[in-house]
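Q: Here's a chain of 537 amino acids. Please give me its 3D structure as tokens.
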Amino acid sequence: MADKQDDQIDVIVVGGGPVGLTAGLLLAEGGARVTVVDPLTAPGDLPRAISIADESFRIIDRLGLADPLKAETYLDTGARYFGRGDRLLAQSRPVASRLGHPAKSQFDQPVLEQLLWDRAVAHPLLDLRAGHRATAIAQDADGVTVTLADEHDATTTLRGSWLIGADGGRSFTRDEIGVPLVGSTQEERWVVIDLLNAPGEREPYAEFHGNGRRPYVLVPGIKGRLRLEYMMLPGDDADELTRPERIRELVLPFHPDVTEQEIRRAVVYVAHRRLAKTYRVGRALLAGDAAHLMPPFSGQGLNAGLRDAANLSWKLLAVLAGDGSDRLLDTYEQERRAHARKMVRVSHITGSVVMARGVAAVLRDAVFGLARLVPPAHAYLSSMRFITPPNYADGLTVAPAPDVDPALAAMVGTSLSQPTVADASGARTPLDHLLGPGWAVLHLGPEGTIARDPYWNGAARLRLCAAGATEASTRPDALIDPTGLLVDTAHPLSVAHAVVVRPDRYVAAVFTAGSERQVVDGLRSYLDLSQRQEATA
């Protein structure tokens, strides 16, 4: 770790879990001086989150950690929903991902935490203050002051330009800056049990058993990892249900020879459906569970937090560099809170389906039976389309002009598809690895004058074409998209188009030569890319 004076800190991150470390590392990778504060002295070892989405892998890949995480992950999984009598109601697999990673997988959170922690310890611009907790936060127009206490209650004061509170559902940061949570708490409690060395090979599906009596969830991992979740019934005593003998009784059907050492944890869990009323107060911003708490049934909690980290980090970097405005920073809440609210609602509905008992369970099973007879409804459920990815069209984007191709216009606000592209030599590379860490402009369609405004000086430029196109062999900078994800050979463009990609890989705009000025003017009120180039030239 680098030795730094406390008054040199650009961003203080309170919370060294997956979200805080990801945000801190993305900021440090962008050149910011970061201090991450956490009361633990080692990475967390509890397998809390268990489901990871394609976009989360994409974010982790920016830190070079996707491949080692995938080696410990059950990749490309789905879900099965069972009703009364253990009858299969629905089987779901996500639609094939266009982001270059498996759409849904089951991972082990301690593996991710160890990878992030090790990377943080080694990063020259990140100071990991392990074994310290925040005890006071104050801010003024120029920065944020955070008081820390170590395990002996010795205090230290940090001064930074910005603060990210990523310190979990019981966030000290959120309380200290006066932000309330809005929403409700689920009445039903669950016993969550994580096991090691479970026998047999399980199919790649999480199982939701809504048996109408004591619903339970079974989530397999690799290398014998297995999660079991049992809903507590009215009258159940938490202490009684978590006694070792009772836990063993619940586990035996799935792990007959389980030992005490193979039970990683057994805890009672209460789900919340809550959002922070605001994600920002002055120079302090909230991320992860500090900003949103959601039921676990759709596996979106940590994925939402990692999206927070990716969205916020590049915007803070732009503000720190002097080319991003305060309006840019306000789009963090605008974009992320809306999607978090949607995921809270989806998770609540999914949980209601699983937890149905009595007459509600009978009605649920009947509805699922009818859905099988209606192809659109069946396709909606079987492809998990109810878990919708973010769309930031109402955030930091510029609406496409009428002259933009409709298929490309629909990309604005969505995450950019990631094909594996080939260069003139035939070498194949995931597109993200060529975009660079900042803004990028992709040239699609025929040759033409496009993206010539000096505003784009601070963006990487890539030319994408179809296999067999003339420029594929004549232009050394041309990249071939053999997948059709971005270059559709069945519907070739008649004029050159530029796709503007943000650092978090979301599409900010698409334009032709005729609509370039509209896009430049629309983005300039948020940030000026040309200033960035001049500052680094």
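Q: Can you summarize the key feature?
A: The longest helix spans residues 326-355.
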